[in-house]
Amino acid sequence: MENVIELRGVSKALKAFTIDNMDLQIKQGFVTGFIGANGAGKSTTMKLIMNLLQPDNGEVSVFGLDYASHEKEIKDRIGFVYDSNIFYESLNLKDISRIVAPAYKRWNHQQFKAYVNQFELPLNKPIKKFSKGMQMKASIAIALSHDAELIIMDEPTAGLDPTSRRELLDIFQEVMVDGKRTILFSTHITSDLDRIADYIVLIDEGKILFDKPIYELQEQYALVKGSTELLDPDTEAYFIKIDRSPNGFQALTKDATKVKEVFGNHVVIEEASLEEIMFYMKGADSHYD
Amino acid sequence: MFNLIKKDLIIQKTQIILFIPLIIFLILFARDISPIFIFLVAGAYISANAYVYDGMVESNILLNSLPYTRKLIVTSRYIGAMVYMVLSMAMAGAVLYLFDYSYDMMDMAIAAGLFFIFAAIAFPLFYILKPAYIGVVMFIGMIALAIGFQPAARFLERNLITITDFITSLSTTMLYLSGAAIAIGLYLISWIISQFIYQRKVF
After folding, report:
1. CA angle, A244 as apex, A241 and A246 as ends, to 5°?
2. Which residues is A207 bridged to in the sheet?
3. Among the partner residues A51, A76, A86, nearest to B57 by beta-carbon distance
4. Which residues of chain A does B202 touch, with a Cβ-Cβ cutoff of 8 Å?
């Protein structure tokens, strides 16, 4: 399995934030969901991948190429969507496509028009008069109209109403049908990912806590509830983080099978949602991966 | 690079429509201003607007996410500024001619020289300053220019004569050539500085 993005030992110190020695691999042909709380480092990592930020140390390679000598070639094959509008807002979509299209070798105007029709986007209305959902759709139409092999989206569903979110997720699924494309998709709305992600990367405080196939997460991770009497230093070792209350404890484990073996029917084991995993992993020791 | 230069025209469609009325306005309502000033405003018009536009939205993120290198973005800005200066001044010259406003080629040359100096100072600043301040700086700059231009021009005229007198051994051509060399030299140095700043810019 090939990696379309690789970060090796990447460090970047910003004013209020540091990424230290990060390793990350994004597999080709899959949807990877990049999750973490606000301020966990998702956007910074995305910017490092897009070469908007250059690492202080370490290497970033995309399609096996480095930015120092292949910047144009790499970006020609990437479609990007950011959470805020980056297009000249007084321009309409037609003019924006006039600016963007000649930058790409494989811009497909028919394809662009097809997406514009599908998303019901007006071509002659200034972008600033677009709703948030329309702006996102416009970004996506542009990102998908030059035969990009890698689509990088930073919080594409943020600020969208549930209907638009669903619509967008459907579009992403359609885009993935041919199996050649890779999507890296950051979000803090984890329910978006249950439907479309193949891999989940969790980041917290600039550190990658895990990078796993989603089915593995669903199989291995579980929420465990039981009486606090069951807890002692030995049994606590099975859990990533434990919440205690007068009524008992609730904890996240990454080894559901083992917990079942050890505690048997003394505890209740439930499937952990991505949100719960994210919540319990936050602030837990990073040696759990 | 051609695409990046052309981009400014697409963005400024409306402003370009206003360009000729602006020149006519200057001719009609400011009859006694120096044609140098008109040429300077005309020459700087598109480039100055381009910076304002690029500062307004996060267009640096857009441009740098497209298949362009940072080097190419800065290069296009500097070359584009020259191209637009030449085109705009030619257009302003044509409008002035139609309105029977007298000027000579030397006015154009001095305006071009001033533009190079103005751009040499302003462009790197635009890359350093936060987008929000660019408008303010532009505004103050324009006011300073408007207030200071006439006295400065008179001062220059007086001193130009003194200097010409002083270097009588040099021909006027020589004098203007060295003036041009200094202006273009500053522009080239500014270009290198902007490259240096933009390579390290954090978006």
Report:
1. 170
2. A204
3. A86
4. 14, 52-53
- Tell me the residue type at A248: G
Please give the helix or strand (H or E) that residue A223 lies within, else none: strand A222-226
Residues 6+ apart with CB under 8 A from A10: A19, A21, A22, A23, A24, A48, A55, A57, A58, A59, A60
* Torsion, Cα of A237, A240, A243, A244 (10° steps): 0
Nearest to A39 by CA among A240, A210, A282, A214: A282
Q: What pLDDT shows up at residue A17?
A: 83
- Residue A287, pLDDT score: 44
Q: Is A3-217 a domain of CATH 3.40.50.300?
A: yes
Q: What percent of chain B has pLDDT over 70?
A: 88
Q: With 60 as the cut, is the pLDDT of residue A192 above it?
A: yes
Q: Tell me which H or E stretch contains B115.
A: helix B105-128
In the stretch 142-161 of chain B, residues with CB closer than 8 A to chain A read: none
Residues of B in contact with A71 (CB under 8 A): 67, 69
Looking at the partner chain, which of A14, A87, A103 has a beta carbon nearest the beta carbon of B67? A103
Across the interface, do A102 and B3 touch by the CB < 8 Å criterion? yes
Quote the pLDDT of residue A5: 94
CA distances from A2 to A5, A182, A201, B169, B179 (A): 9, 11, 17, 73, 59
Nearest CA in chain B to A74: B67
* Phi, psi (deg, nearest 5) at residue A80: -125, 145
Tell me the residue range of the domain where B179 lies.
2-200
Ordered by start, the domain boundaries in chain A are: 3-217, 222-271
Q: Is B1 strand, coil or helix? A: coil
Quote the radius of gyration of chain A (alpha carbons, Å): 21
In sequence order, which ranges of A188-251 are alpha helices (DSSP H)? 191-196, 214-220, 233-236
Beta-strand relationship, A17-27 and A31-35: unpaired
Q: What is the predicted ipTM? A: 0.83
Those residues whose C-beta lies under 8 Å from the C-beta of residue A21, and which sit 6 or more positions away, are A9, A10, A11, A57, A58
pLDDT of A62 > 90? The answer is yes
Q: How many domains does chain B have?
A: 1
In the block, tokens 């020149």 appear at B23
* A47 vs B: CB within 8 A: yes
d(CA A80, CA A104): 13
A134 within 8 A of A92, measured Cβ to Cβ:
no
| pLDDT tops 60 at residue A285 | no
If we measure between CA atoms, which residue out of B144, B41, B44 comes closest to residue B96?
B41
Which residues make Cβ contacts (< 8 Å) with residue B182, sequence separation at least 6? none
Task: Report which secondary-structure segment, H or E, holds A78.
Answer: strand A78-81
